[in-house]
Amino acid sequence: MATGTAADSAQTARDPVHTDPVPTYPPINQGAEGACDGVTETSTSATVLPGQAPGEVRPMRADARRNYERLLAEARTVFAQHGTDAALEEIARRSGVGIGTLYRHFPNRQAIMNAVFQEAKTALLERSRELAHAEQPCGALIEWLRALISHAGEYRGLAGALMSASHDESLALSQCCVPLAEAGETLLARARDGGAVRADVSIGDLMQLTKAIALAAEQAPDDPNLPDRLLLLTLHGLRGDQRAQPAATPAATAPTS
Predict the structure, then answer these.
(1) I want to staple 84 with a disulfide (CB 3.0 to 4.6 A). Which of 157, 168, 204, 228 is the partner?
(2) Count of domains for the chain
(3) Is there a domain that residue 68 lies in?
(4) Is residue 1 a part of any domain in this protein?
(5) Mean pLDDT, to the nearest integer, of 23-32?
(6) Domain range holding 90?
(7) pLDDT digits over 95-128, tens only?
(8) Taking a C-beta distance cutoff of 8 angstroms, is the pair 130, 109 a contact?
(9) How large is the average pLDDT for residues 58-79?
(10) Nearest to 217 by CA among 207, 205, 229
């Protein structure tokens, strides 16, 4: 199959990538549940695309499906090696397709990052369902937050992108925030109801904190214990069995001479 040639570049300019339906299929062998899978797979040869009616099925050619899976596999490898800001042209080159083919499947960087994150999102949702029945609600919440930090830090640049996506619904990655927040809220509510977490703690704040911790850990690759230290330090302030303490004044905290 041809790689990035001059002909490919010319074809890319002619491709109506903004008008053609853009398939965003979940990775192969992965369930299609959740709001950000983009597609509900109904058979090996037909898919339901975003924007289609529930009963409307559009066939997917086998070669296009193979291209999608190859692009997704190479994106994971390239992002792991070079971070999420790696050149998309390199992903296309390694996949043996032109950049126009990549853009037909993934119209922008956020779209391919969203597809790459689907495996982690599915694992996090599954783990949250398991932890929802744990005997220790606070311990279950902590374990899930640890998993969230781990997945957010899997690729350099992903934590920052997830943080931005939580405030911008136009970004493809923002679709992952809703199901993850709902899953986390279930665990947080159990810990809150048990008195282990303060009533004013929100899942939105907790998720932003996990992304910030993953981002901090990204800048300190030689300190693998940093994420857990930061998480435990944060959680100490969430405990529901602490009496409210007045804020320290500058005079009270200033060192004596």
Answers:
(1) 157
(2) 2
(3) yes
(4) no
(5) 33
(6) 20-116
(7) 999 999 999 999 999 999 999 999 889 999 999 9
(8) no
(9) 88
(10) 229
Please report, in angstroms and rounded to a whole number, the separation of the first and last CA atoms in the chain.
75
246, part of any domain: no
Dump pLDDT digits (tens) for 154-203.
999 999 888 888 888 888 888 888 899 999 999 999 999 988 888 899 99
pTM reported for the whole predicted model: 0.66
Q: Using alpha carbons only, how large is the chain's radius of gyration in Å?
A: 22
Residue 251 has pLDDT above 90, yes or no: no
Residues 6 or more apart in contact with residue 34 via CB below 8 angstroms: 121, 122, 125, 179
CATH of the domain at 44: 1.10.10.60
> Which contacts qualify for 37-46: CB closer than 8 Å, 24 or more apart?
37/118, 38/114, 38/115, 38/175
Rounded Cα gap, residues 134 and 132, in angstroms: 6
The residue type at 72: L
Whether 102 and 129 map to the same domain: the answer is no
Q: Is residue 6 part of a domain?
A: no
By residue count, the chain amounts to 257
Q: Which residues of 89-124 are buried (b: 16+ CB within 10 A; e: fewer)?
A: ebbbbbbebbbbbbbbbbbebbbbbbbbbbbbbbeb
* DSSP-derived secondary structure for 203-257: HHHHHHHHHHHHHHHHT-TT-TTHHHHHHHHHHHTTBTTSPP-PPPPHHHHSPP-
